[in-house]
Amino acid sequence: MSENTKISLGTFVGIGMAMIATVRSVPTLAAASWQMFFYMAFAVIFFALPVSLMSGEFSAMLQDAGGPQLWVRTGLNPKWGFTTAWLLWVQIFPGMVMVASTLGPLLGNTVGNVALGQNHWFTLGCIIVIYWIITILNLKFDMVKFAGNFGVWFGVYIPFAVMIIMGVAAAIKTGIDAHSVLGTFSAHKLLPDVSTFKYVAAISFIFTGIETLGVYVPRMKDATHDFVRGVVFALVAMVVLNILNAFCVANVVPKGTTELTNITQPVLLFCKVLGWPTWIANVFSLLAAVGVFLQLSGWVTGPSQTMIQVAREGLVPSKWGFFKHNNIGVARNVILTQSTCITIFALMYAMPDINNVFLLLTNTTTLLYCVIYFLIAIAFIRLRYTKPDLARPYRVGKNGNGVAWVWTVFFIFGIFAIAIVTLATAGAMNAIIMAIITILLTVIPLIINSHKNDQWLKDAQAYEASQK
After folding, report:
1. How far apart are CA 127 and CA 136, in angstroms?
2. How many domains does the chain have?
3. Which of 59, 126, 343, 410 has the most CB within a 10 Å radius?
4. What is d(CA 455, CA 445) in angstroms, rounded to the nearest whole number?
């Protein structure tokens, strides 16, 4: 790979922030009120930190293209490696619809039309039209590198800074508002209760995707050292930015009125409290919309790279053409297929209850991720015993496997806790829908694997040979 396509540490952190750092997650965290501290601590200790450490060891040890699917394939077997690649890809079907659902409110607020932003039909139209625009751009340009180098400042860092400045100023002026989502403080409010369990998956979802950064290891200038540092920096920044922002938002939004997909809601309230002009909220909405746009761009090609890799290995039908890619490594058939599926999932916004659809999509995505993370955890600890002598430039625990076991147990506990709480609090119908989607999308790759034949690999190899 030429030097001009290599990614520096700064660019890598930018890509990471573009993919996982977004003001979109702030309203959901704020909705948990004082319990946001407990849920965030839980998400970091039993979810984000374990997978970050594991992905650091995996990525430094296995630097070939493939990311999580390579890790699971090496730690378990090709069948589960393929299943991981498949799930990493299909989780973006509901996941990207959930992320894109914030575009409607943001664009509505950009032009000063709050009612338009709250219209579910407008939200549906924004998701479909804008995602297809992003798809076309990704087929022509290296949007991932652009997002990391430039756009992330306008879409992530600046909106976060604006919210922090306005939120802190509003909190200083008003103090703790007893009528807000936050309400008055008491020690027992720090502990979780049933009323906020429904936000556990969404809060954990703040950190999902941090392990997918492993697909960019082959493009990094110094992957052995920079990957771990980049992931840790992104994780710490995520915790600080989200907690500070969510606290300020929870202190200004009236109790019972949180709009999970409308990040501009608290900014308008900040303007009212501070007596600042509302055009600030319009500009903020535009910048946040850019952030969502860039996050979607990063996710268009990231997970699809794993599908290109397994297609090259002859694990999917060659007639799908998933191994065919352009000069920037983007597979047209993969991208168009996922955009079509995302459009189908987007039709859920034909239902008027935007908050309910948002949580349904978030929770479904999280359940799919729970399956992926469980496979990663098992592969991680198993590889310690099946290939103990494999070079590990970065290692979880200097000696022995004790530390590795601790983080693996923490991780598996977190995965099951999130899955159980998510299903238990979703309501019977939503729980059934989420379970069916998760089971169906997990079984499909197993069926494909059972019908695998040698011709798929021969066709993929013939194509690769023709490109040289």
Report:
1. 14
2. 1
3. 59
4. 18
